[in-house]
Amino acid sequence: MPALILASASPRRSELLKQLGLAHTIHVADIDETPLCNESPADYVLRVADEKSHTIHQHYPEDSVVIAADTSVVLGDKIMGKPESLEHAMEMLSLLSANTHQVFSAVSIRGRYTQHCLSVSDVTFRAITAQEIIQYWHTGEPDDKAGAYAIQGLASTFIKNINGSFSGIMGLPLFETAQLLSNEGINIFNE
Ligand SMILES: Cc1cn([C@H]2C[C@H](O)[C@@H](COP(=O)(O)OP(=O)(O)OP(=O)(O)O)O2)c(=O)[nH]c1=O
């Protein structure tokens, strides 16, 4: 079994990998995550995930497997990252209120092969008030989450419906991840 390295600072991604029973070390990739001019959401998350896995794979032997991911919340042509302030969270969550948006999550895996894939999910919010957004902000939960919410937390009370992958919305689509890892000889059921 090759060594598995998670190129991510996201505790959620590590938890999700552990959910598959996969032991891993963490080596955070510090890269510029600014979208390029006119870059589509799909191209953006795939490029950033690839840059993260590439940066970290350089530090390890060829036969190690590095996994990286990138998640964005997308509404129309707006790509939403993490909130920088209460005002920024208010702006994003007001747009998501009473609306359906997409969550794009890319996974990039480098080992013997270079592989990546994309998970896109639809998420529908009920109407949320400015008062709720302010209270939600003060819980600290929106802080380091794309679109300023966490489906796995209190924001579950805002979400009427999802069509897609719960783990993908949380930051690491496990169905796709398991498929890519099996191409590298990492199998969930026969470690
Ligand atoms: C939409 C959504 C996002 N998120 C999180 C997943 C990611 O951690 C974060 C999106 O930011 P990312 O830039 O994808 O990841 P990150 O900065 O946390 O970690 P790294 O770049 O080192 O891998 O938002 C949730 O936890 N729940 C959600 O419902």
From TrEMBL:
Catalytic positions?
Answer: 70
A molecular function annotated in GO for this UniProt entry is:
UTP diphosphatase activity
Provide the catalytic activity annotation. Answer: dTTP + H2O = dTMP + diphosphate + H(+); UTP + H2O = UMP + diphosphate + H(+)
Q: What is its main location?
A: cytoplasm
One Pfam family named in its UniProt record: Maf
What does the function comment of this entry state?
Answer: Nucleoside triphosphate pyrophosphatase that hydrolyzes dTTP and UTP. May have a dual role in cell division arrest and in preventing the incorporation of modified nucleotides into cellular nucleic acids.
Q: Which family does it belong to?
A: Belongs to the Maf family. YhdE subfamily.
Q: Which GO terms describe its cellular component?
A: cytoplasm
- What does the UniProt entry say about where the protein is found? Cytoplasm
Q: Which UniProt keywords apply?
A: Cytoplasm, Hydrolase, Nucleotide metabolism
Q: What is this protein called?
A: dTTP/UTP pyrophosphatase
Cited InterPro entries: ITPase-like_fam (IPR029001), Maf-like (IPR003697)
* Entry EC no(s): 3.6.1.9
Which processes are annotated in GO (biological process)? nucleotide metabolic process
Q: Which cofactor does it need?
A: a divalent metal cation
Q: Where is this site: Important for substrate specificity?
A: 12, 71, 152
